[in-house]
Amino acid sequence: MSSLPAYDLITMGRSSIDLYANEVGAPFVDIKSFAAYVGGSPTNIAVGAQRLGLKTAVLTAVGDDPVADFILRFLNQEGVETKFIPCKPGTRTSAVVLGIEPPDKFPLVYYRDNCADIALTIDDVLKTPVGNCRVFEFSGTGLSREPSRSATMFAVEQARAAGATIVLDVDFRPNQWHDARAFGVVVRSVLPLVDIVLGTDDECKAVTLTDPTQVNVSHSQISGAKVAGDLQAAVQAMQRRGPKTVVVKRGEKGATLFESDKAPLDVPGFPVEVYNVLGAGDAFAAGFIYGLVKGWDFYKAARMGNAGGAIVVTRHGCANFMAYEEEAMKFIVERGGF
User: Fold this and answer.
1) Fewer beta carbons within 10 angstroms: which end of the chain, N or C?
2) pTM (whole model) above 0.85
């Protein structure tokens, strides 16, 4: 791969219009109005990394509808490259409706039937320079159905062959899979191609899930599921298949680094008053990947990720409220530095 790739980061997967309740604290049935933002984990990460100063592109897909115009306009305004995003006639651009009931209830509903980004194909990948980036990031949800599944795996193969660092954001959304166990089967199959895994405690356990009774879909508004089991065993099982580094996102507690042949290392977070946790993990990923591109060690990169997550949880939405580089650096310095 060229020493000067065209992009610091290319992300691949879902995009959406996110409708966030304006009535913070109100039960979902009492919501009167929503604010419209851009969402979808890989899309959020691309925006977050772009705001931090990286050159990013996103490979997603949109339908032939006004929601697509809404998303593309925002991404273009942010400077995220959109020329590789195909329009899929006959599909719909995805949507998500979200409630905000702090401190621990954030219900969300996905509208992803016949959604455009699941229609991504290998041909779409071939039109995208996935082999010309420093980091390639993809999400677990993109593996949930065909043709997106094979397109994503093909993109990972191409990016890895070109020398990119491959980052998987586990992004476990059980209601996007016909069987929660299928999530683990598919993700485990791609792990040999992955360098770094990002996920919550529950998401990491879900990768090794074999017992469907361990999934509680009613908790999907927070982390995708509440999955029983041993985190250390789940991490080691993933590492045996390929990725040497697993980063477990722990919310207000920060993150824990699991590197092969090293003891787990806790990376402290930044205490803040939580307004809305949705999108915190994507802000973390953007900050962490920023650190990777800058050549930082994993500890410092995770601190940057923690700062991004801490900033965004004090705000109403996700992509639209990601931190800028100067803002994130100032936030860290004012709280003791890296």
Assistant:
1) N
2) yes
